[in-house]
Amino acid sequence: MNELSHAFVVFISAIFTQNILLSYFLGLCPFIGVSREVKTSFGLGLAVIFVMTSTCLLNWLAYEYVIEPLGLHFFRFILFIIIIAAFVQFVEMVIERFSPSLYQRLGVFLPLITVNCAILGASLFMVIRDYSFIVTFGYGLGSGIGWFLAIIAMAGIRQRLAIDRIPKGLQGPGITLIIAGLMALAFIGFTGVLSGN
Prior knowledge:
The chain has helices at residues 3-15, 28-34, 38-70, 76-98, 100-106, 117-128, 133-162, 173-188, 190-195. It has 197 residues and is mainly alpha-helical. It has one domain (3-195). Helix 4 packs across helix 5. The protein is globular, with a radius of gyration of 17 Å.
């Protein structure tokens, strides 16, 4: 399998069968906290796609050309978090400048992308799985799109549930976690389809 086809397979699996949110449950806090409105979820999802793709590539470069040659493996967590934090600051400034209303709606969850474990998890998976630069790009982009699709789907369902009657014991986090579990099962169901079984 050549490099581009491997990157494409990793990209597709990162969206569906190995969705970083629904398969590994990384990034649940902003997922549950922001997914009340589709518009807000859309903005945060786009920010996560941009940050995850960019930081995966930058962290790959940092790992291959700084950490690995110098034997600073103990330093990778700190360096990865510094790169992620810098990118989140950049995204936060851009959103505040060009869409103040979205910036207000996202509130505390926008700076919390810095500590979104899905972002750091994608960079660590990229190192553990020994991906090349092109495959890392496919993985970062696919993971971001997978997270985006999951939060948009959850927001649509939660907006619909806001006008429906739900038993009192399931209202709030209860029904949200049940829906997240059902979505995880649905995404994992793609495994057989994509593998040809």
